[in-house]
Design a protein that fits this description.
Elements lengths: L18 E2 L2 E2 L9 H9 L27 H9 L4 E4 L8 E6 L5 H10 L5 E4 L1 H6 L23 E3 L9 H12 L8 E11 L11 H11 L5 E6 L11 H11 L3 E3 H11 L3 E10 L4 E9 L5 E7 L8 E7 L2 H5 L7 H15 L2 E6 L3 H4 L2 H12 L4 H7 L10 H9 L4 E5 L3 H7 L5 E6 L10 H11 L13 H17 L11
Parallel strand pairs: 3-9, 5-7, 13-14, 13-15, 15-16
Antiparallel strand pairs: 1-2, 3-4, 4-8, 5-8, 6-7, 10-11, 11-12, 12-14
Helix pairs in contact: 1-10, 1-17, 3-5, 12-13
Family: In the C-terminal section; belongs to the GTP cyclohydrolase II family.
Keywords: Chloroplast, GTP-binding, Hydrolase, Metal-binding, Nucleotide-binding, Plastid, Riboflavin biosynthesis, Transit peptide, Zinc
Organism: Miscanthus lutarioriparius
């Protein structure tokens, strides 16, 4: 994965005295011992609080249990075989038979029709649909289909077909759609094959079968045109769900993959960001170099604050911070986000080098500002932060960290000490050529306003406070964490000399 690297011009020296509005800047109310405790934890063993550097059970190269790997599916697509692609439980939770359109045969079409709904679709890129003058069946505004699938007018090939409905006729129509030499006048409209408009960016933009099918064809090095048909349950004719799909895959010796695994595969291997600007900034914590990155998927801009020379890429103190407007900017007492950001910046300034990646679009753990404020109303009525999201019909946490991982890679980071209380961030950063040497806890104040929020994150989302996984979000728990971290430091021979300046 070759990313554009924005080379820094001159690394800034550490600021000795920071004056904001004519007076010394306060420490943003972080705990007095938080920086010291964090740097102690940073030099403890590589496995801290369940962050195991040897545990690859969630590595991106490993498929979800019960599924085939993406490389296996790509190879079958390349060979002209079909694969089963399973949707998400939040969508249809159904499976489609998918194959490359350029490889279709009458025999393959007969198999697809026999085990599918009979509605055979062909997903195609917009430029090919425009070349063949195949407009959408209804406009985007008029589209009332549940998942907004973009159907075009249906077609039959004029040559090599009779009624258009036989396996041979459908195969000929599909091959004509896949041919770069076909012209608009080669097709009758309407017909028995239903082209679908692929959304550029594929499953990284829309997690649907339309996008998954074209992505697989392109990953196999074939034309970006694919056949897909929903699989039915042989017993009652309903849509086949995962247990039946797995039985079918085993019986027919087919690979079965999930769209979620395909998304992870692409996020790991595709270039997701580009660096657009670098500039020095004097912040309240000191002098930093700011790097602006733009997502190539959705155009969202993110920022990385870099302190000192991180060019060797080794043992870098890192914070990947999710945007929180209410906490980071307005100092909301409901969460600890603003305090965590301030503490991370303070620790990096004191250490002399490190990186804070600020990811936008993560508001409310990915649900957006408006939904987050609605969730606050539900929390005031007694729900916790997880229950409120779920009651709104939203995930408890929909964030992903592939963008952050690629930004770190582009900056040259290879091994890091990760400042976080959230094990999901370790998992989310794995598989991008990054190694997490250890976790640096961010021990920010527990208040009456945020105590329940932080305890819910510990109980329901696996967050860890302090130096042991059993620590809980209370004053005594944090105090005990500090005492244990100091004891761990005393027990770790040879570690003290490596502790960075705190």
């Amino acid at each position: 994965m070759a990313l554009q690297n924005c080379e820094p011009q001159d690394h800034n020296e550490r600021a000795e005295n920071v004056i904001i509005n004519g007076k010394a800047n306060p420490s943003n109310a972080v705990q007095a011992d938080a920086v010291a405790l964090g740097t102690i934890a940073a030099d403890m063993a590589p496995v801290v609080d369940g962050f195991s550097v040897d545990d690859d059970e969630l590595d991106l190269d490993f498929p979800t249990e019960g599924f085939s790997s993406i490389p296996e599916a790509i190879e079958d697509i390349r060979q002209g075989k079909y694969v089963i692609v399973v949707d998400d439980e939040d969508r249809e939770n159904e499976g489609d038979l998918i194959m490359a359109a350029s490889k279709v045969t009458p025999e393959a079409m007969a198999f697809i029709v026999r085990h599918g709904t009979g509605i055979v679709c062909v997903s195609m890129k917009e430029e090919d649909l425009e070349r063949l003058q195949l407009p959408l069946m209804v406009t985007t505004k008029e589209n009332e289909e549940k998942l907004r699938t973009a159907f075009t007018v249906s077609v039959d090939a004029k040559e090599g077909t009779t009624t258009g409905v036989s396996a041979n006729d459908r195969a000929n129509t599909i091959l004509a759609l896949a041919s770069p030499n076909s012209k608009p006048e080669d097709f009758n409209r309407p017909g028995h094959i239903f082209p679908l408009k692929y959304r550029e960016g594929g499953v990284l933009k829309r997690a649907g079968h339309t996008e998954a099918s074209v992505d697989l064809a392109m990953l196999a090095g074939l034309p970006p045109v694919a056949v897909l048909c929903e699989i039915v349950d042989d017993d009652d004719g309903s849509m086949a769900l995962l247990p039946k799909l797995q039985q079918f895959a085993k019986r027919e010796n087919l690979k079965i993959i999930s769209i979620a695994d395909l998304i992870r595969y692409r996020r790991k291997r595709d270039r997701l960001v580009e660096c657009v600007c670098v500039t020095p900034l004097q912040l309240q914590w000191g002098s930093f170099k700011s790097y602006c990155y733009r997502s190539l998927i959705d155009g969202m801009e993110h920022i990385a604050m870099v302190k000192g020379d991180v060019g060797d890429g080794q043992d870098i103190l890192v914070r990947v911070h999710s945007e929180c407007l209410t906490g980071d900017i307005f100092g909301s007492a409901r969460c600890d986000c603003g305090n965590q950001l301030a503490l991370a910046m303070t620790m990096i300034e004191k250490t002399g080098r490190g990186v804070v990646v600020y990811l936008r679009g993560h508001e409310g753990r990915g649900i957006g500002l408006g939904h987050k404020l609605r969730a606050y109303n539900l929390q005031d009525d007694g729900r916790d932060t997880v229950e409120a999201n779920l009651e709104l019909g939203l995930p408890a946490d929909s964030r992903e960290y592939g963008i952050g991982a690629q930004i770190l890679r582009d900056l040259g980071v290879r091994t890091m000490r990760l400042m976080t209380n959230n094990p999901a961030k370790y998992t989310g950063l794995k598989g991008y050529g990054l190694s997490v040497l250890g976790r640096v806890p961010l021990l920010t104040p527990i208040t009456n306003e945020n105590r329940r929020y932080m305890e819910t994150k510990r109980l329901k989302m696996g967050h860890v406070y302090g130096s042991r996984s059993s620590d809980h979000a209370s004053g005594s728990g944090l105090a005990g964490a500090g005492e244990r971290a100091e004891q761990d430091q005393n027990d770790s021979a040879g570690v003290q000399d490596q502790t960075p300046e705190a």
